[in-house]
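Subject: design request, 554 residues
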């Protein structure tokens, strides 16, 4: 009897699946009503009720009830659904059941499992029309560039077992421009801000910005989107969280007790986020069937295959290209994350080279090592970033960091003198009451030494000496977060933070600042959000400015 139990469950699942399938077939009947009216729009619903003289619409047209799910299936194979919270729950239950069934039959999972449900409503229709008309020129460019990047990005999403349709997030984020930079400091095809990039393992410093690397940034985006989906159990809310931050979405859910994007966006969320998901839906619909939406004849860029090769540190890509007989611009395009056109100081660095050149690079490693090193200049070391606050001006920021207004504007491609509150500005060669110079100067000036003990981490050491993790890594040429017991570290500007009790030296008391979120604080101290909630008995994700949190460094 024990062996037969799974079969009974399978039969139950199949029965439920068939019932849902039949209900879905009934709801897909075409009707003039399904093309013209969305009862999600309450004003239009009331208008229809008035016209029909019914206080509550219950009549049916053909096989489609005016209160049922409005759905129709496009030729491209994905579903267009009218948003209704009960409908969405049924839809997701359907797919959860289906996944459990197909877990027993792994070879027959349908191709559409790799797609996300697409809603078709007035907000989506608006962006469909926008992309076909006033936005036609730049959307054509998006499609053109997509051919170069989508195949590799889809492969990464498939490896992560995520819907491949998520690739169109990169389309609306950057138009597949790997060097895209927003006024808020988001960079690359997936538009990572600095804190999120570092939280998901991307290297960002004055030599390397892996947010611009299509492969590495896609891996980070896939990991982030998986976390967002695990948090919200909805791709619409995951996309919203990707745009405005997961804490903001969670706070909205907690406040309104609604977990459906289309409903909650009627009450709250920034306007950009309200438009973000409809824009994603519209872009996905067009990109999957461009001819239908009058985007025929697009000449897509071809993917450029490459392979990896290890080269010495601090070498110019231009010199490497000349030595190997590779076009310098091609090598640069393969390595957009090397923002200074050179490999960073420290250890050997893995770069992308055209197919067939990997073995050549390995064979000529000594010749590449003999090339001149790229000089380490003060501007390379001391570049920092500043988030604009209320009352700031270009002149005030320039004086604060002792740089010229013209260099500040040039580094940030600012025309005129307008800056926005919240904008992230790069400060080239700037310092505030600090010091500049070579890497050796940074290691010796106002620094202390620390010998790594068992249980130490960079986060713990930084907190102990009141320094930043990035400054310790930079001063010691550390990549990643690995340190060894017995290793002696230079702590720039370090001063041991006193503690009343040695047993509490790994406990931090953090006072919440305006704009802080649990995710930001967790990322800063390398702990989880759930841990912070547990340590401080927090029932929600909302924080009050001035509130004190206890952080146990793990």
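Subject: RE: design request

Done. Sequence follows.
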């Amino acid at each position: 009897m024990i062996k037969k139990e799974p079969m009974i469950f399978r039969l139950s699942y199949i029965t439920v699946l068939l019932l849902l399938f039949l209900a879905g077939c009934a709801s897909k009947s075409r009707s003039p009503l399904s093309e013209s009216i969305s009862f999600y729009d309450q004003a239009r619903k009331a208008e229809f009720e008035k016209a029909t003289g019914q206080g509550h619409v219950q009549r049916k047209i053909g096989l489609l009830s005016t209160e049922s799910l409005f759905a129709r299936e496009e030729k491209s194979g994905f579903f267009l659904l009218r948003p209704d919270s009960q409908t969405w729950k049924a839809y997701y239950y359907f797919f959860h059941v289906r996944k459990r069934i197909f877990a027993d039959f792994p070879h027959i999972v349908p191709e559409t499992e790799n797609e996300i449900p697409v809603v078709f409503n007035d907000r989506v229709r608006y962006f469909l029309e926008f992309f076909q008309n006033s936005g036609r020129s730049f959307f054509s460019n998006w499609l053109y560039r997509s051919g170069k990047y989508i195949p590799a990005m889809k492969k990464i999403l498939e490896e992560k077992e995520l819907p491949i349709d998520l690739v169109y997030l990169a389309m609306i984020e950057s138009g597949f421009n790997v060097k895209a930079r927003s006024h808020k400091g988001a960079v690359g095809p997936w538009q990572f801000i600095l804190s999120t990039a570092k939280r998901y393992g991307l290297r960002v410093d004055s030599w390397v910005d892996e947010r611009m690397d299509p492969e590495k940034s896609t891996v980070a985006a896939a990991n982030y989107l998986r976390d967002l989906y695990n948090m919200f159990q909805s791709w619409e809310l995951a996309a919203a969280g990707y745009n405005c931050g997961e804490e903001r979405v969670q706070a909205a859910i907690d406040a309104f007790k609604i977990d459906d994007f289309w409903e909650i966006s009627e009450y709250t969320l920034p306007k950009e986020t309200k438009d973000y998901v409809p824009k994603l839906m519209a872009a996905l619909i067009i990109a999957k069937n461009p001819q239908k939406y009058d985007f025929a004849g697009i000449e897509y860029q071809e993917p450029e295959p490459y392979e990896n090769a290890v080269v010495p540190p601090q070498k110019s890509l231009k010199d490497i290209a000349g030595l190997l007989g590779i076009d310098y611009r091609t090598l640069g395009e393969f390595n957009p994350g090397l923002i200074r056109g050179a490999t960073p100081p420290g250890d050997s660095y893995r770069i992308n080279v055209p197919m067939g050149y990997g073995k050549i690079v390995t064979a000529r490693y000594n010749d590449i090592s003999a090339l001149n090193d790229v000089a380490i200049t003060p501007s390379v070391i001391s570049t920092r970033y500043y988030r604009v606050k209320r009352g700031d001006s270009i002149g005030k920021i320039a004086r604060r960091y002792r740089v010229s207004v013209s260099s500040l504007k040039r580094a940030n491609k600012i025309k005129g003198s307008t800056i926005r509150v919240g904008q992230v500005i790069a400060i080239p060669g700037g310092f505030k009451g600090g010091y500049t110079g070579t890497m050796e100067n940074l290691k010796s000036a106002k620094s202390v030494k620390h010998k790594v003990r068992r249980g130490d981490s960079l986060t713990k050491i930084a907190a102990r000496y009141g320094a930043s993790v990035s400054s310790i890594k930079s001063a010691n040429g550390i990549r990643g977060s690995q340190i060894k017991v017995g290793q002696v570290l230079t702590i720039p500007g370090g001063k041991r933070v006193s503690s009343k009790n040695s047993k509490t030296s790994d406990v931090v008391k953090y006072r919440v600042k305006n704009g802080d979120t649990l995710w930001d604080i967790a990322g800063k101290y390398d702990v989880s959000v759930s841990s912070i909630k547990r340590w401080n008995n927090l029932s929600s994700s909302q924080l009050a400015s001035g509130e004190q949190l206890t952080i146990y460094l793990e």
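The radius of gyration is 27 Å.
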